[in-house]
Amino acid sequence: MARVIAGVGTSHTPAIGAAVDNGKTDQPYWQPLFRGYEPAKQWMAKTAPDVVIMVYNDHVNAFDFKVIPTFALGCAQDFPIADEGWGPRPVPAVKGYPELAAHLIQSLVLDEFDMTIVNEMQVDHGLTVPLTLLFGSPQQWPCRVIPLAVNVVQYPAPTGRRCYQLGQAIRRAVQSWAEDLKVVVFGTGGMSHQIQGPRAGLTNPVFDKAFLDDLSRDPERLSRIPPIEYLREAGAEAIELVMWLLMRGALGPKAEEIYRFYHIPASSTAVGHIILESR
Prior knowledge:
By secondary structure, the protein is of the alpha/beta class. It contains 10 helices and 10 strands. Helix 1 (about 15-20) packs across helix 5 (about 125-135) and helix 6 (about 160-175) packs parallel to helix 10 (about 240-250). The longest helix has 16 residues, at about 160-175.
């Protein structure tokens, strides 16, 4: 059967992708960040997953404010790279897995999750930056990717508990797929940051590091954090951390921390990263 073998949590700050695309990774500002991801790239090369389920949020590229699904699963064969205003990132188009995605949709809907089916979708930095951080800059991405877009842009966002429960349902769905596949689930976005208003530039390392600690130690506590606490303690955009809980739910009751990295600043945000293996 297919198996969820690991989860990756990582920020998806767009400036990280721009630094790669414009050859700035060795500059003093960026060098510590990219050095911190080198062990993760080595882990990913060794792990060699067959499929990545990428939990991310669209930034008004695939979806505009006319229609904003809470949970949208990409079921296409291919996902082109979005033009976010300065041209598409010079990275390969993403190859999907429509057969497995259709199976996930069926399993999740029958498990009482109201998923939106997306048969045509562009993907933006929320998805491509994590791929770059873990896989580098290949000519083609080395595995197939199933995008799972979560609304954390327009109020109300789903709760951490609902995301955690959806992750658990995804684990059940993957395990009911007969093909022998290694699946890695990404939870992206965060950590503490706010990009507008009087608190623009806010970061909270204490909140962030406690969150990282409890992904393996006490995910139930994290699932009980109310949306207002993310806003108050870690900034308006920290609500993206509910997507890390979706990843964590997919790993099952026990997960072992393999690697962690935390860095400030990266374009006025706190960058967090963790690798968890399912036990």
